[in-house]
Specification:
460 residues, 5-stranded mixed beta sheet, 3-stranded antiparallel beta sheet, 12 strands, binds protoporphyrin IX containing FE
Length: 460
């Protein structure tokens, strides 16, 4: 049988030889490699991979076409999402076009205004517990990466599932990271064996997934003891997932499990990654921290911060916007084209893999002045208010865009602002040693954690 000849490339890009010579760089610093590829070949780069043809898209309008204006022509059957589904199953994040819409409709009420108001209560409790844990750490080095993972996991557990994960947070955070690190490894290694094979990697992944499954089982058992009373409004996402509808239909146990794991995974490491980089940037930009402290100290001293304080915290929101620009936790968004299309003048055949990298779009010199600089005020207008035109623009994609826009965006922004506002006036952090290397795994994490020296300034 004759082998199918690969189609000729439709966009500039590196040769196979260049890729081979770049293997060490790709391993050591994948973000630098992507930046170099865009610098050398432009806004649509084609990698020398025949099947599927693979493109890196950094042109903001082309990215918008993939995610928003022609979103129907792009699905999620990509290696990244297929591998992630080894952990999450077909939950909302990985579900492809046909199963996705009813899932989104089902869980959307968990993110309505009144549910978000309650998030501030959960954030406050988690911050208080963190300050308790830090009480005897004044003057010592603490790992902000670990602290933010723990905190974000507690918030997602209590806000969405009414579950107190504080006792189990470290174990669960470890299981999530273990599982996601292996997901990344498998997605990057074409030779990785399917889960049925007992390779060391697969065994670690199975163990981590079991730990997550046990946490879900415990949550469900607790809810069986405390079910929704007939006529009562769903209290949180778990009630929505367990609801039996008027026509008698309900999610299967497996479907509930997939959504719970999806929300634990999608809802905590992302927020934790953003907050971790926020502390690193604040620790190295004292003038930004001074301004942040000036805005947040009065709010913290009064009572808060609580949901109603958000309007008083525009600079804090701008700090978070700028952190998400420089360190977008979801640094890659992938899609599979379902039909032929054209992106920024490049013909893209059906079946191609499209890689949109917010990391590159957010550093595009045609959109951002001094893109490498940490300058929160770029997100404020002359009246000192948040620039909504900028956060909704084509050049800013920390939460994706279009129909698959992050469902947790408002919760994440609220949580991020509240954590910064609660901690910024109470602590000081200073760097110890060299700046951390940003490692892009499922999210961007500081390699080896983020050790910073802690000073406690105010009691809770
Ligand atoms: C700073 C924090 C966060 C960032 C940067 C972030 C980023 C993103 C991005 C880029 C997407 C779109 C992926 C794509 O188009 O392929 C997404 C989707 C999603 N996110 Fe987030 N996320 C964050 C927080 C959260 C939180 C707090 C939750 C839930 C509690 C959450 C749950 C989800 C889910 C379920 C989806 C899939 C939505 C759908 O396809 O309908 N995320 N997120």
């Amino acid at each position: 049988m004759a082998l199918k000849r690969p189609a000729p490339p439709t966009a500039p890009g590196p040769t196979g030889g260049v890729m081979l010579r770049s293997i060490a760089e790709i391993r050591r610093d994948p973000l630098a490699f992507l930046t170099r590829m865009r610098g050398e070949f432009g806004d649509v780069v084609q990698f020398p991979i025949p099947d599927p043809p693979t493109y890196l898209v950094s042109d903001p309008e082309a990215a918008r076409r993939v995610l928003v204006t022609n979103a129907r022509a792009y699905g999620k059957r990509t290696i990244q999402y297929t591998t992630l589904s080894l952990v999450t199953g077909d939950g909302l994040l990985t579900a492809d076009t046909e199963q996705w819409r009813p899932q989104r409709r089902l869980v959307q009420p968990a993110f309505h205004h009144e549910s978000l108001e309650l998030v501030s209560v959960h954030v406050r409790a988690a911050v208080d517990r963190l300050l308790d844990r830090w009480r005897d750490r004044d003057g010592k080095v603490v790992d902000l990466d670990e602290a933010m993972m723990h905190l974000a996991l507690e918030v997602v557990g209590s806000a969405l599932f009414g579950s107190d994960l504080s006792a189990d947070a470290d174990r669960l955070a470890k299981a999530t990271i273990e599982a996601l690190d292996i997901v990344v490894k498998k997605a990057r290694s074409p030779l990785s064996l399917p889960m049925g094979f007992p390779t060391p990697t697969n065994l670690v992944l199975r163990r981590a997934v079991r730990a997550l499954d046990n946490a879900v089982d415990a949550m469900l058992a607790e809810r069986t003891r405390n079910p929704l009373v007939a006529g009562q409004k769903p209290r949180d996402m778990l009630d929505l997932l367990l609801a039996v509808h008027d026509d008698g239909s309900a999610l299967s146990k497996r479907e509930v499990r997939n959504q719970v794991i999806t929300f634990i995974v999608a809802g905590h490491e992302t927020v934790a990654s953003a907050l971790t980089w926020a502390w690193q940037l604040l620790a190295t930009h004292p003038q930004v921290w001074d301004r942040l402290r000036a805005e947040t100290a009065p709010v913290a001293a009064e009572h808060g911060p609580v949901f109603a304080d958000l309007a008083r915290l525009p600079y804090t929101a701008a700090v978070l916007d700028e952190v998400l620009r420089l360190y977008p936790p979801a640094w890659l968004i992938t899609r599979r084209s379902l039909t032929d299309d054209e992106l920024a003048g490049v013909k893209v055949a059906a079946g191609s893999l499209l890689i949109v990298s917010p990391w590159l779009v957010h550093r595009h010199e045609s959109l951002w002045v001094d893109p490498e600089q940490f300058r929160p005020e770029r997100f404020l207008d002359e009246a000192g208010q948040r620039r909504r035109d900028l956060v909704a623009g084509a050049g800013y994609l920390p939460f994706g865009a279009g129909p698959r826009l992050c469902i947790g965006r408002d919760m994440a922004l609220l949580e991020g602002v509240l954590v910064l506002a609660a901690l910024a006036p109470r602590i000081e952090l200073s760097p110890v040693g060299a700046a951390p290397v940003a490692m892009p795994l499922v999210t961007i994490r500081p390699q080896g954690g983020l050790p910073l020296r802690l000073r406690l300034l105010m009691a809770k």
